[in-house]
Amino acid sequence: MAHPTVLTETATVSTGTRTTREGERGPGSDFAELARRVNDAGLLGRRPLYYTVRFGAVGLALAGGVAAFLTLGDSWAQLLVAAGLAVVFGQLGLAAHDLAHRQVFSRRRPSEAGGLLTADLLLGMSYGWWMNKHTRHHANPNHEAKDPDVSPDLLVWSRRQARQAVGIPRFIGRHQAALFFPLLTLEGLNLSLSSFKALRGPSVKRPLVEGALLVAHFALYFGGLFTVLSPGKAFVFLAVHQGLFGLYLGSVFAPNHKGMPMIEEGTRLDFLRRQVLTSRNVRGGAFIDAFMGGLNYQIEHHLFPSMPTPALAAAQRLTERYCAELGIPYHQTGLLASHGEALRHMRRIGEPLRDAR
Questions:
Q1: Cα 214 to Cα 123: distance, rounded to the nearest angstrom
Q2: What pLDDT is recorded for position 8?
Q3: Where would I find the Fatty acid desaturase domain in this sequence (predicted)?
Q4: Long-range contacts, 9-12 (Cβ 8 Å, 24+)
Q5: Is residue 85 a contact partner of residue 241, using CB atoms and an 8 Å limit?
């Protein structure tokens, strides 16, 4: 199905019986009915067995990767270990995501403790910085002025951003569709650098704790690399591991919103429509569920952020039917098709920059 590039202040949606200007219906009324149905289906309860098995498997994979690294020694076969650990790091990122949303524990303290250990110590990313950034994204997905995930720091996501772009975004924006996946290889390093910079900002509430955990992570990481491997092999291992890690994260997060409608300042959308219209689900069965950690059910995740991953498939069926009742566009596609939509959007958005040369 086709989607508009921007939702303007006069955007309309179909309610199933008539077309209304957004904001005419009572705020949250439509979502309240969906929430009642989801709650009645028992989809919001914790799933401790699922997370015990899932996190246990990721922990075993991490331990196995470290053991293989120590066993192989100074060998080019370590590049296979680097590739495997890139997947493990991606799964650690997904685990930190679920902990931040309190999908695992209902209480703040265990969620935060688990998030600090997983994100800062094991992954090398600030839990506090990322959680602050991700919370703002959830509140206003694809909002030009409020969603940090679509700020024009490097890429541009709307024609307005393209027209206003200067410096590096203007240069990269001309060919951003072609450069998108190469740039993703730097995402892992970008997350770590941004984490250290954020330690002096207000988004990190425990800078000393997070700083100590981040330093411990990189002391172990680089210490292990340059103790076991020769300098040349260590740098190649680092490039392969971090590059594939960034590609993995990008392949998980990019299909969720990239290429979906952008929201301009002043647009009036209730919570249900704001989350559904800007999100995309990815079909694909059990493999995609595991690969994307449940984020392939992005619409349902945005509507119910604390819902445990194994409940999302059932919530998807309820949500899709409910949106059909209201006439709200509900978009889902395959993984490759989702990337195609995102890349076509990026190429289309970059046209003003190419034409201006």
A1: 9
A2: 36
A3: 75-333
A4: 9/264, 9/266, 9/267, 9/268, 11/267, 11/269
A5: yes
Give 336's contacts (C-beta < 8 A, 6+ positions apart).
none
Closest CA to 349 of 142, 184, 176: 176
The C-alpha atoms of residue 253 and residue 195 are separated, in whole angstroms, by 19
Helix (H) or strand (E) holding 296: none
Alpha helices per DSSP H over 140-230: 159-164, 167-173, 176-184, 187-198, 207-228
d(CA 281, CA 334): 8
Q: Token pair 């076969």 is at which residue?
A: 77
C-alpha distance from residue 151 to each of 5, 140, 243 (Å): 16, 12, 23
Q: What share of the chain is helix, strand, coil (3-state, %, to 5)?
A: 65, 5, 30
Residue 11 clears pLDDT 50, i.e. is over it: no
The confidence score (pLDDT) of residue 357 equals 60
The residue type of 128 is: G
Nearest to 53 by CA among 317, 308, 314, 298: 308
What sign does the CA torsion over 111, 214, 69, 291 have? positive
The encoded tokens of residue 226 equal 């340059």
| Residue-averaged pLDDT of the chain | 90
**How far does Cα 316 stand from its chain's mean position?**
18
Cβ contacts of 12 within 8 Å, gap of 6 or more: 19, 20, 21, 22
Q: With the C-alpha atoms ordered 345, 348, 353, 357, is the resulting torsion angle positive or negative?
A: positive
The reported pTM is: 0.89
Q: In this structure, what are the phi and psi dihedrals at residue 299, rounded to the nearest 5 degrees?
A: -60, -50
158-182 residue pLDDT tens: 888 888 888 888 889 899 999 999 9
Quick: pLDDT tens for 200-249. 999 999 999 999 999 999 999 999 999 999 999 999 999 999 999 999 99
Residue 294 CB neighbour total at 10 angstroms: 23
Q: What pairs with residue 154 in β-bridges? A: none
